[in-house]
Automatic annotation (TrEMBL):
The lineage of its organism: Bacteria, Pseudomonadati, Pseudomonadota, Gammaproteobacteria, Chromatiales. Residues 46-134 form the Dyp-type peroxidase N-terminal domain. Pfam families: Dyp_perox_C, Dyp_perox_N. PROSITE patterns: DYP_PEROXIDASE. Belongs to the DyP-type peroxidase family. Transmembrane segments: none annotated. This is Dyp-type peroxidase. InterPro entries: Dyp_perox_C, Dyp_perox_N, Dyp_peroxidase. Residues 138-307 form the Dyp-type peroxidase C-terminal domain. It comes from Arsukibacterium indicum. The keyword Hydrolase does not apply.
Length: 319
């Protein structure tokens, strides 16, 4: 049975580090070996610093996949589908690799990232190293509970891990979309709490859906459910706030078992009511109200294969 990467379904941590790399041309064979070593490196550190609850995820970019694993491709894996959207001005970052490291100790994250970079350094260029942190009791910088609709228990695995019957080679892998959002907190904090709640669609304290008629169709919560509170979100969200002197927001990592889950859910948030509209690039209509207070400047699509796949891909003529 295929073994998934532990960071996909792990519980929330206090700190997250994100490493975005571009691979140097002609290094595919050695990188296949090194990518398979990263989970072992993380497992060794997790055992040594057991109280830190260290986990990680190795993901390969949609545009780089065929170069490093030419023998098989996850069904429906494609570049970030909304790059160039007029409303959000999304711009795709051409990253070949994404490594996510999460734990309850920032120093352990630092050690893990240092060792990963040392392992990969001769064969890659580091594009970005980003840092996220847990805010209050799992809240976003807006003050609202982050992703209160996230799946729990067995539903989490069902939603995020590829079904072995659907794609045996990629069983226990996961489609991953990465985004960095910047918040306009200056204008957000000028709103009354009741206005913020109607934009988000949830109660600010408890995180529960607002009752009608306060629950607006294009509120953030209902947009995530594709306009109907009976619809469950299609994605597992692993969001972590980031903050600097002049910028702040959230780093969003979305996992899904199906290749079109992100397109369906996020497309609805952008105002596209049907999948067929996405290729037409029509102006957004009834888009997520919270998009008036944030914008994304980094986005990319990846696939996080199973540990079993990473190990098998190192053997000649197997993948």
């Amino acid at each position: 049975m295929a073994r998934e990467q532990l960071g996909i379904c792990a519980e929330a941590n206090l700190h997250a580090s994100y490493l975005l790399f571009n691979a140097l041309e002609g290094q595919e064979a050695i990188l296949r070996q090194k990518l398979a070593r990263i989970p072992l490196l993380l497992a060794r550190l997790a055992e040594h610093f057991s109280e830190a609850q260290l986990t990680g995820v190795v993901a390969i970019g949609a545009n780089y996949w065929d170069s490093v694993y030419p023998g098989a491709r996850p069904r429906g894996l494609q570049a970030f589908p909304f790059a160039g959207n007029d409303h959000l001005a999304l711009a795709e970052v051409w990253a070949d690799l994404l490594i996510v490291v999460r734990s309850d100790r920032l120093d352990v994250n630092y050690i893990a990232c240092q060792q990963i970079c040392q392992l990969l350094k001769p064969d890659v260029d580091l594009l970005e190293q980003l840092q996220g942190f847990r805010y209050l009791d799992g809240r976003d910088l807006t003050g609202f509970i982050d992703s209160p609709q996230n799946p729990k228990g067995s539903r989490k695995r069902q939603l995020t891990l590829v079904d072995p019957l659907a794609q045996p080679v990629f069983a226990a892998g996961s489609y991953l979309h990465f985004q960095r959002w910047h918040y306009d907190l200056l204008h957000w904090q000028q709103l009354e709490v009741s206005q913020q709640e109607e934009i988000m669609g949830i109660n600010k304290i408890e995180g529960t859906l607002l009752p009608p008629p306060r629950l607006l169709a294009n509120s953030h919560a209902l947009s995530s459910r594709r306009g109907d509170e009976q619809n469950q979100p299609l994605l597992l969200m692993q969001n972590m706030p980031f903050a600097g002197q002049n910028n702040h927001g959230v780093i969003s990592v979305c996992y899904a078992a199906e290749p079109d889950s992100f397109t369906r859910q996020f497309g609805y948030q952008l105002g596209y009511q049907t999948t067929s509209q996405l290729s037409l690039q029509q102006p957004a209509n009834q888009y997520d109200l919270f998009f008036d207070y944030c914008h994304a400047d980094l986005c990319a699509a990846f696939f996080a294969p199973s540990l079993s796949f990473l190990e098998m891909a190192c053997r000649p003529n197997v993948i």
